[in-house]
What we know:
Elements: H1 2-53, E1 76-80, H2 86-98, E2 101-104, H3 115-128, E3 146-152, H4 160-168, E4 175-182, H5 190-197, E5 202-203, E6 207-210, H6 211-214, H7 218-227
Parallel strand pairs: 1-2, 1-3, 3-4, 4-5, 4-6
Helix pairs in contact: 2-7
Amino acid sequence: MKKLLFLMLTLTLAMPLAACGNNDTAEINAPESSSVTESSAVSEESTLSSESNAPTESVPQTEESSQPETETAATSLVVYFSWSGNTESVANEIQTQTGADIFEIIPVETYTDDYDTLLDIAQEEQANGVRPAIADTVENFEQYETVYFGFPNWWGDMPMILYTFLDEYDFSGKTIAPFVTSGGSGFSDAIGTIESMEPDAVVTEGLSLGSSEANAPSNAVTEWLSAIGSAE
């Protein structure tokens, strides 16, 4: 009987100890489980940190060109001398229709505004073969292939300052397209003179306009340019 009571007492004392052993195991395993979770979190943070610090690929940006477009140099030039403004009117119309550069021949010593006095001066210059000086020069004259060459008719010829221009510039290989304004005399012998002074140039058919026509030269210029093959 005593043995039976002793056995039962022993079993009763052993049961709390077993329960305590199971709880210790659970507590020991709990930090391990937590450690695994923290490790995963650290790994994720490390991955995120690595991704955020990863160098981004540089995407080239297309920049609009800031270089100005190169303008094409003109290959034709309008050269003219005008005293009354008639020849200037025709020259400007030619320039408008062709897009040519333009150059006005201006004497160093300005001509008188008095018509009768001018007639005497022009006649004297012709008689003495005078070459009046020109105030300015044409830059890069060699670039021009066609030169529209205009003047008024003075005493049946070009004004002598036009001779100065022909003497100073080389027209070899160029095309000269002459135009004249007059009271009715037209070119007289001026075209022949141009051809003799510039034998290595091609001289086209000329345009001759009277004073009234020079005031509104648009149609006449258009027809002339078409006839000589210079129309746009």
